[in-house]
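Hey L., structure's done. Input below.
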Amino acid sequence: MKRIILVYGDQELFCHLLGSFLHENGFSISKQSTDIWETIEEIRRNPPHVILIDARRSKSNGLDDATLIKGEFPLQKIVLLSASSEAKDVMAALNLGIDGYLLKSVSPEELLQDLAAVCTGELRVSRELVGLLVRDWRKRKRTGGELEEQNSARLTLRENQIMVLMAQGNTNKEIAEKLELSPNTVKNHVISILGKFNVHTRTGAVSKWKNLLDEMYPRI
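Output:
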């Protein structure tokens, strides 16, 4: 059985070339998408084994896109293809629950091997990053820093998903339509978010959420 990959990025040529390469090497490409909502709709219709996301996007952030997907499909396997080797960026992705963080310098052979491994349930990180992550973990352990204490992932996956849309200026009704939820469900999530951030307005919640992201995770 062929392993199904969905390729997502904001450059059509990038998606086409990458999709063609993967197809020629044994993968089945369900879609080459440049739109997050088309991607989510495709997952609903035909869940792939893995979604490969270009982490550096001009229209949105790879982690934001992964958050939207994980919020609705927590078990969906996602691999980020990134140019960043910063420990904070890698930890942000791993903390979200993604299944692979690969540098864009990865060789074609390694990319194929890593995607195949993720399909079978393995977690893959580019080998160049392993030492970096170990050093970062040791440093945080020495200083007593706990990433989770400052991380906006104290919100649930669904709440983080709603925060992404709220930060984009969507109303509760618009969020409900995009996530296929009832308006009351969205309202309850928003109330929970406001309580966790100890604020009384959506603007205040968005501000605190963005500040936490900026402090912990410089954009990929």
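The radius of gyration is 18 Å. Residues 127-143 form the longest helix (17 residues).

-- N.
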